[in-house]
Amino acid sequence: MYEKVIELLEQKKYHELKSMLADMNEADIASVLMELPQETLPLVYRILPKELAAEVFVNMESDAQEFLIKAFSDSELREVLDELYVDDAVDIIEEMPANVVKRILMHTDPVVRKSINEILKYPEDSAGSIMTIEYVDLKKYMTVDDAFTRIRRTGVDKETIYICYVTDDNRKLLGLVTVKDLLLSDKSKKMFEIMETNVISVTTLEDKEIVADKFQKYDLMAIPVVDQEERLVGIVTFDDAMDVLQDENTEDIEKMAAITPTDKPYLKMGIVETWKKRVPWLLLLMVSATFTGKIITSFEDALQAQIVLTSFIPMLMDTGGNCGGQSSVTIIRALSLGDVRFGDIFKVIWKEFRVALLCGVTLAIVNFGKLMLFDRVGVLVSLTVCLTMLFTIVFAKFVGATLPILAKKIGFDPAVMASPFITTIVDAISLIIYFKTAGLILGV
Amino acid sequence: MYEKVIELLEQKKYHELKSMLADMNEADIASVLMELPQETLPLVYRILPKELAAEVFVNMESDAQEFLIKAFSDSELREVLDELYVDDAVDIIEEMPANVVKRILMHTDPVVRKSINEILKYPEDSAGSIMTIEYVDLKKYMTVDDAFTRIRRTGVDKETIYICYVTDDNRKLLGLVTVKDLLLSDKSKKMFEIMETNVISVTTLEDKEIVADKFQKYDLMAIPVVDQEERLVGIVTFDDAMDVLQDENTEDIEKMAAITPTDKPYLKMGIVETWKKRVPWLLLLMVSATFTGKIITSFEDALQAQIVLTSFIPMLMDTGGNCGGQSSVTIIRALSLGDVRFGDIFKVIWKEFRVALLCGVTLAIVNFGKLMLFDRVGVLVSLTVCLTMLFTIVFAKFVGATLPILAKKIGFDPAVMASPFITTIVDAISLIIYFKTAGLILGV
């Protein structure tokens, strides 16, 4: 696709290029455009059919958008802005430097500008910050026919027309009507007769994660956003909810790997920025790990007496970390999906205890066989290593399963309690278990 | 909510209970019902208003569904089945034991039974296995008015009426028309005049992950599923795509923690089943970690000479693992979001190299200060530890960033190349670096 565009560009076959692009999907065109050499971007963009241009623009990444805005004449800019939904405009503005934002707002229709400024005021990650104000609102005494007339008149600019909201004169949300209800109802029915009054909604200040969770739980197509006085101020549609869901997943995954989350794509992040997201956690974990070193130092004599014990330290530490990591990640995910709650903590501990015994016994047996047959380190050393392994696994799975639940209970993000932290804790304890067991069995 | 239901049940205030439930959302009712003592479940379920009952049923988990089906009379079962969408029926059947499946199919309408059997034949995780066959299909010479008549006549049983598909006499997909298009068009227009012919679709055998990706990329409300001859056989709607997205994320997260993925909720998994998902990876990683032990053994003399070196092993190994884990998880996620491709491998390596230098220098400096001021281990030992740290970090980030990309290239799942595997590799190399550096600087 990309090669074809380049070819047509080089041969200046603009007409052919135009008709080729006109047949493509806007997201695909945006992908192709972003791969083009930047200086050809405005040229190709101007070739696009008018009605496609704004949709392609929305699908591009912010650096390409910024480049284009800077290349636009005032009237070109106004044309694009007129076609944007308010929530898309807000998304774009949030990524732009101040001077570009100023220019955008200057060329936006005053009514829309006011809405944009309203939305920009909501806290980052709130429902208000991701909503759009373009929804169809109906009144309770309208008939089905009136409703269709209103949808036909105003629907072209709305992000969805399929869910319409019934409000009173103070904009208070009374109910919702779907276009399916409208199509299947008698034309003279009034809205209050057919509307669903038991409406799932969110408030402007609620976290966008809650918005995504409600879409999941209730299979919604759109959710109304109301203010503190229960007045309808906007809606969030399913496509935006899906983006939120993906962002939240990325955030959780990054936290589990001890990285401060970011919503920038990997290749767009600067080196220093990437470093800043990673190094604080590394420092913290490094300092914590030095305690583990202290434990080794305090058992120096035992190690001097039985230097062979040193060689099993990495295996014991790694296995403990892996077991704890499995449990913590499983529980973190179960918490985030709502499969596990604080009240389940004893059920979880009991379950992990039994799984840990099974895993521990399996690993200990395999390891014992290996130590006796291949390493030939003697029964007592083998026993020391294998018992340590069993105890460490039970302990690791206990810590891995409980810390995320406790973290959530006290208002921390459970995702932070994943492998890196669990590993650091388990390492220290596994060494103590190791040297204590060695003391008992080997007398060192 | 739950307490209130229990209270009304105990007082046998069934009428009050009914009107309370009638005002609730089906997903909420399902949550409450699943928490009830199982023997009261059929009683409460029978109290539900007819039209709600089937919707509540769909929202319950499979064990509660199974219990209910067993309690149903034949006519009750038939009533519920009549209300189900085909894709929901398939989801339910997939979770039931053989005798229940037989009973369900026996009481299903023969036409629907045929469709269910068709869908059950598609491979697990394919687009065909998650589609529904209930869509609105139109013909190209129908007018807008004809289309509305058809939607009004058949729409009540369709999972979505908002996207209608135009097919020819052989069911070949020609285009799509949205209800928005229909509402905003002249009533006498024909479908071929207003339909969108450039339709994004999937084939029955494509992976459901691709379905979810297309919803994300193109902001779709539904996607048509076609067979090898491009005939329309079904559609997937956005709510199902959102579920697929969540499942895929859970799968990736589990793989990153060295667990074989499962789609069962945590508390529904048996102990032995959980053990089976975890222990093979633990065994594999344990055996790999013994190589790290071998490296320690081969440098036993150096350790005997400078026993203090032992105490830094955990910190060096953990830091290496954490650094590698950060890079691998970042790249795995970027690959899965499509932010990074194989062609970017050198860009990624160059970026990770510079980030690693920054992180390595930061950590080495902090550590050097700590070793000199607090641990007072002498300049040469401090230098050995800090240089090892720097080299290990650079190596760990290189391995962490490249292995997932290479895994994907050769058709492996990159998610497996996360912290546990990277840690095992980095551990071994960090020890070699450590002892070589010690040999050079300390002469041991």
Describe what you observe in this structure.
The structure is a homodimer of 444-residue chains. Chain A is mainly alpha-helical. Chain A has a 3-stranded mixed beta sheet with strand order 1-2-3. In chain A, helix 20 packs antiparallel against helix 21. The interface between A and B is large, with 109 and 109 residues.
Question: Could you give a quick summary of the protein structure above?
Answer:
The structure is a homodimer of 444-residue chains. With 444 residues, chain A is mostly helical. Chain A contains 22 helices and six strands.
List the helices and strands and how they pair.
The structure is a homodimer of 444-residue chains.
Chain A lengths: L1 H9 L3 H9 L3 H10 L5 H7 L2 H10 L2 H10 L2 H10 L2 H10 L2 H9 L3 H12 L5 H4 L5 E3 L5 H11 L8 E5 L5 E6 H6 L6 H4 L7 E2 L4 H11 L3 E5 L5 E6 H19 L14 H28 L1 H6 L7 H25 L7 H31 L3 H31 L9 H24 L2
Parallel strand pairs in A: 1-2, 4-5
Antiparallel strand pairs in A: 2-3, 5-6
Oligomer: homodimer
Taken from the alpha-carbon principal axes, the silhouette of chain A is elongated
Largest interface: A-B, 109 and 109 residues
Percent helix range of chain A: 55-70%
Radius of gyration of chain A using CA atoms only: 30 Å
Mean pLDDT of chain A: 90
Low-confidence stretches of chain A: none
Report the biggest beta sheet of chain A as strand number plus sense, adding barrel if it closes.
Answer: 3 strands, mixed
Taking the alpha carbons of the first and last residues of chain A, their distance comes to: 71 Å
Q: Strand percentage of chain A, roughly?
A: 5-15%
| Overall number of strands of chain A | 6
Give the helix/strand class of chain A: mainly alpha
The number of helices of chain A is 22
Order of helices and strands of chain A: HHHHHHHHHHHEHEEHHEHEEHHHHHHH
